[in-house]
Design brief:
Strands 7-5-6-4-1-2-3-8 form an eight-stranded mixed beta sheet, with helices on both faces. The longest helix is centred in the C-terminal third of the chain and has 34 residues. With about 325 residues, it is α/β, with parallel strands linked by helices. It folds into two domains: about 230 residues, Spore Coat Polysaccharide Biosynthesis Protein SpsA, Chain A, CATH 3.90.550; about 70 residues. The chain is elongated and about 90 Å long. The chain is built from ten helices and eight strands.
């Protein structure tokens, strides 16, 4: 009989003191049931990654570990953002497990999908994406902006899975592949599909947040989208080139039109068109410089090769 595989659940946490006790309770029940059914090894663990929380999140994680060693904790030295915290957890545990499942601490990801993810892994999938099958719990504005985010990313050339966030299973082989991506500007939803290997999808209905506030308001979501676009594709720069070429053609047409008007002796009033041209071209130039500057800034940060995260403490099994 084949030996059960070791599963580690990796959960990034930032100021999650209100939801953490309930999250730990539900995840413990889930992983215990999987162990009892012999779908995963008794050595499987639940790992919370504290991303520089300012509340009692780390103290709660430490207490959970003290009460039951199935709970582990990775404490970052400071807040580094969701993507870096998630990567820190995955890279810390990858040597101890056969597969990981990453999910958020707010209980919006349906943990019952974990069973099907494990089944997909047993069928040969190295990566399994958790995909929302509906957005019934979202407001109309939230649904519009969220789906618009995925469509914009795909339009810009990013290879991402529609309606997939960071709820996914990754095998150790896939994690080894992820480790080879050394870029500082992380957007895991776009990086993971680049790894390759056999993949699968599990569909689930996302729930409402159990407690606390969302860590991704509209402003942060827009920033996240821009970070993803500029980290994964140079299409914005290509669009600048296209706009420049179009403006050049328009200027040639205007020049020919002006010469014809001059030769025929017609008076060109011109004030409105000149002012519009000055403002339009000036605005486009500033926008172009800003976009190019964004890419140059990313190159600057990459050349510094700063650490993506620093682990202050790791609570795990004594052995």
């Amino acid at each position: 009989m084949e030996k059960s595989k070791i599963l580690y659940l990796v959960i990034p946490c930032y100021n999650e003191q209100e939801v953490l006790p309930e999250t730990a309770k539900q995840l413990l029940a889930k992983i215990t049931s999987l162990i009892s059914a012999k779908k995963i090894s008794p050595k499987s663990r639940i790992v919370f990654v504290n991303d520089g929380s300012k509340d009692q999140t780390w103290n709660i994680i430490a207490d959970l570990h003290e009460q039951n060693p199935i709970f582990q904790g990775v404490n970052l030295s400071r807040n580094k953002g969701h993507q870096n915290a998630l990567l820190a957890g995955l890279m810390t545990v990858k040597s101890f497990c056969d597969m990981t499942i990453s999910l958020d601490a707010d209980l919006q990801d349906d943990i019952n999908a974990i069973d099907e993810m494990v089944e997909k892994y047993d069928q040969g999938c190295e990566i399994v994406y958790g995909v929302r099958n509906a957005r019934d719990t979202d407001t109309a504005f939230k649904k519009f902006t969220a789906e618009g985010f995925y469509k914009l990313m795909q339009f810009m050339g990013a290879d991402i899975v529609f309606n997939h966030a960071d709820y996914r299973l990754m095998s150790r082989k896939a994690l080894d592949g992820l480790e080879q991506f050394e870029e500082s500007n992380l957007f895991l939803r776009g990086i993971v599909p680049m790894i390759g290997y056999q993949t699968g999808e599990v569909y689930y209905a996302r729930k409402e947040r159990f407690a606390g506030e969302s860590k991704y308001p509209l402003k942060k979501m827009l920033s996240f989208a821009w970070e993803g676009i500029t980290s994964l594709t140079v299409k914005p720069i290509k669009m600048i080139t296209f706009c420049g070429a179009m403006l050049f053609l328009i200027s040639i047409i205007i020049l020919i039109y002006s010469l014809i008007r001059h030769v025929t002796g017609a008076t060109i009033q011109g004030w409105t068109s000149i002012m519009f041209s000055v403002w339009a071209i000036g605005g486009l130039q500033l926008l172009s410089i800003g976009i190019i500057g964004e890419y140059i800034g990313k190159v600057y940060l990459e050349t510094k090769a700063r650490p993506k995260y620093i682990i202050k403490e790791y609570l795990h099994d004594a052995d």
